[in-house]
Fold each of these.
Amino acid sequence: MVSKKHKQVASQALHQAENICKQKDIKLTKLRQTVLKLVWKEPGYVKAYDLLEKLKKIDPSAKPPTIYRSLDFLIEHGFIHKLQSLNAFIGCSHPQEHKECYFLICDNCQKIEECCSNKILKAVESTSNQSKFALDQVTLEISGRCKNCLH
Amino acid sequence: MVSKKHKQVASQALHQAENICKQKDIKLTKLRQTVLKLVWKEPGYVKAYDLLEKLKKIDPSAKPPTIYRSLDFLIEHGFIHKLQSLNAFIGCSHPQEHKECYFLICDNCQKIEECCSNKILKAVESTSNQSKFALDQVTLEISGRCKNCLH
DNA sequence: AATTAAATGTTATATTATAACATAATTAAT
DNA sequence: ATTAATTATGTTATAATATAACATTTAATT
């Protein structure tokens, strides 16, 4: 079941992706757009091979590289995230500073909440500076129980 | 090449693991201990199937579940970490609060620096509290360039 | 000693991801 | 406009990562 809110967020994210690609002269091809739509079709995260099954209904000749290449593109340009601890993918609703993004992953209901915190990023930056480490990407995934699953 | 320092840390970690298991009445079986030693044998991270190859030299009948079960045990009790963004494993040198652990992963030389920061944990806790999320595990992996690889 | 539980052995297979090369479409250079 | 170069996609095959399911052995409990 997909909430009304999710549909709105998805629709906005898709438009944003189109606009950003136009602006930056990045090619959001038909295929990539389709994959992005399929990612957003689900309320939560999606697995690559589930996406492949869905894509096959549109184009039966789709194969793993078809999906993985599109996913790579979408990640590279910040339209989706990969959840490393789940080997799964999820749409990103705000093409902002991705180093600030982190995920609350509920072990119970599998819902993902994407959050942004400059405070965390600052803490991460300041501690990695101490190691003289030039930070590129930040992967922060927090598992536990969401507020609906606490009892 | 394994540094003298790494050998010392490894040796200490292995002793600590033994002691902790005795204390807590957890069974660090011969196999699990062997796998832990193999993890520490390398200066950086190890992949499961590389471990399997090494284990096979000791016990040719070893198979994937042999390794994965031991790895699961070692992770569960905090003796090693799984690096989710690399599908790899690395020994943990301080059986402390694992929520504080994070990793600096150099894209260039593949070296991993394990760090602990209560400051980051506090920031993570405070922001996840805002979502009323009961935090269980924290996965924080930072990729970039280490100080030796900056130019 | 008998029973139960935990660990390991073993076979098979599921899941995730990429290499390598062929073709098509787009863009840039002449 | 034609050729060349680049980028994207198609296709086959396989690599890499991980687990399910059931059998056997070992250890702990009664």
Amino acid sequence: MLKFDIEKQDGLARVGVIHTPHGDIRTPAFVGAATRATVKALTMQEMRALGSQAILANTYHLILRPGSELIQEAGGLANFSSWHGPTFTDSGGFQIFSLPNVKITENGVKFKSHIDGRNFEMTPESSMRDQWAIGADIHMAFDHLAKSDSYEDMKEAMERTHRWLDRCVTEHQRLAEGTTNRRFEAVRDNGSEIASEPRNDGRERSGPRTAYSCANRPMQYLYAVVQGGTFDDLRAESARYCASQSVDGFGIGGVFTADGMDTMLQLVNNILPEDKPRHLLGMGQEPIDLFIGAEYGCDTFDCVGPTRMARNGSLYTNDGRINIKNAKYIHDFTPLMPDCDCEYCKNYTRAYLHHLFKTDEITAKVLASIHNEHFVVHVTDRIRESLISGDFAAYKSEFLARYYHQ
RNA sequence: GCUGGAAUCGUCUAGUGGCAAUGACAAGAGACUGUAAAUCUCUCGCCUUCGGGCUUCGUAGGUUCGAGUCCUACUUCCAGCA
């Protein structure tokens, strides 16, 4: 089982530590979206420097390129990308929702590669095998988001997600056989601490490698994904189903806006077991997502929004988002956020970043991404601190009032 | 000086008698939530009660129902010849 310590609980909100084979995640935490094994425009060293604790890569993208076997050959996602910290992979289930021309059957999902048109089929079993090969610490079950928001479609997608979850759990357990969690379980196996860092495991293997071999590797963990859309009874049913499974944590999927998220999370997180971590999938573009998510019991978040918006010139400030490309910043020689200690705000002005965007310099996207990622990571860290100190409510109202000009 | 060619939005450009006139860039603004996303959308002569009105293709005339388009002169630029 994935080790998760809860240090403080206040209603549904909690402060904890997820202990992964590649290190700890102090929660609540914002996880950087590294879809193709990289956080766009940023190096892993920059991610570490700005305070990120973990990254999330995407199975769909990585099996297309470079292929899960290559990442396994490289020693897993952490070694391959030089992140050397806790990692997640999304299952590829979200692509069912977001890609056109996918064929969904009970067995799985057929799709053509958007790169070269090759035919692929992803099933619960193949997603598990690919995620084991990619080697992230925490995997998501292969789920199905309904494309429509009708009750019938939501119910059908949720029920399929549950049937697929059974298959994910079975395959995950099969893959886990013979696998050792060196950091937490090896002690029991041989009575002594293992000194070597798990990150080197990929290079320690000897003998012929077989595809999807998982022997002699650190343990990997599986989150079930709660679906059900905006329907309370479906969300409750899905939460109960996921809670009954032998999984290490939970992803909460199919959430697209903070509207109604509080009541949905109250419903779901009151059903999910307290002692396992919960990841709110894809939410965090709007700071309010992080506040509501943490307040109602979510431990980790990931979102492509901060880096995507950064690349497009939209930057977070404590007073709301601004578009640095706007003409009003041409002569603005002040820092974007004087009280921000990211590399951009500490060293450069708004006018400079405006210039970099206008001239389409690569550095524009780098600096903007550093700032936005730093912003959401630190807002989430600050939420954690406020939960510890008991100031969460005050911090939340103060932040949201200023950010959203309420 | 002679002979050709050319002049269209901030820039480059389409347009060879029929609706302010093509495309790109630049400019202005907006969107973005488990990334087919360094992407996409809108505006881009002036005015507008959103029906439309007005003024525009180097300058000035002319032909024509109608001219960026044809004719004449001029101006500027380019090429070739002196």
